[in-house]
Amino acid sequence: MCRYAGLVSNEVHLDGVDRDILFHLQQDGRLTNVELAKRVGLTPPPCLRRVKRLEEAGVIAGYRAVISPEAVGRGLEVLVNVEVSANDLGTIKALEETLSSYEEVVELRRMFGRPDYFLRVAVADQSAYETFLIGKLTGLPGVLRVQSHLTIKKIKGGV
């Protein structure tokens, strides 16, 4: 833990080997410790200690399976900006709970400035998105404006 001008930080110091471990685990979270150790130039025991330290410090927040959207019938991804007209806490909380409950919403972020919310929506096709947009999103209490962006091609990032 480091202190700077009265502020406390739980930032973890990462050296080159730690960053290499993180890189390889991001590429393949199912690597065995033996294979990971070989890739980062360590023997298995110190590699495992480093991974455990990174997990305990919260640097590695978890492991998961990456599901192909197309394989589960959600091949169309739409990025959605939502602006709200409400400024009372009750309406905002209800809106966030409702949006979070929709299985089509795979990511929900409250933003500074405009838009107020950013959503990543995964559906089967344009017809399914229209059903979601008309049936679930527009008309929610507090929603002022919705702007949809269909992805042509994902170049980098995002799971």
SSE blueprint:
Blueprint: E1 2-4, E2 7-9, H1 16-27, H2 33-40, H3 44-56, E3 76-84, H4 89-101, E4 105-110, E5 117-123, H5 126-137, E6 143-150
Helix pairs in contact: 1-2, 2-3
Describe this structure in a few short sentences.
By secondary structure, the protein is α+β, with helices and mostly antiparallel strands. The chain is built from five helices and six strands.
Characterise this structure.
With 159 residues, the protein is of the alpha+beta class. The longest helix is centred in the N-terminal third of the chain and has 13 residues, at 44-56. The chain is elongated and about 60 Å long. Helix 1 (16-27) crosses helix 2 and helix 2 (33-40) packs across helix 3 (44-56). It has 5 helices and 6 strands; from the N terminus they run ββαααβαββαβ. The protein has helices at residues 16-27, 33-40, 44-56, 89-101, 126-137; strands at residues 2-4, 7-9, 76-84, 105-110, 117-123, 143-150. The chain has 2 domains: 2-56, Winged helix-like DNA-binding domain superfamily/Winged helix DNA-binding domain (Arc Repressor Mutant, subunit A, Orthogonal Bundle); 70-150, 2-Layer Sandwich (Alpha-Beta Plaits).
Any idea what the CATH architecture of the largest domain is? 2-Layer Sandwich
Tally of individual helices: 5
In the CATH scheme, the class of the largest domain would be: Alpha Beta
CATH topology-level name of the largest domain = Alpha-Beta Plaits
Strand order of the largest sheet: 4-5-3-6
Number of domains: 2
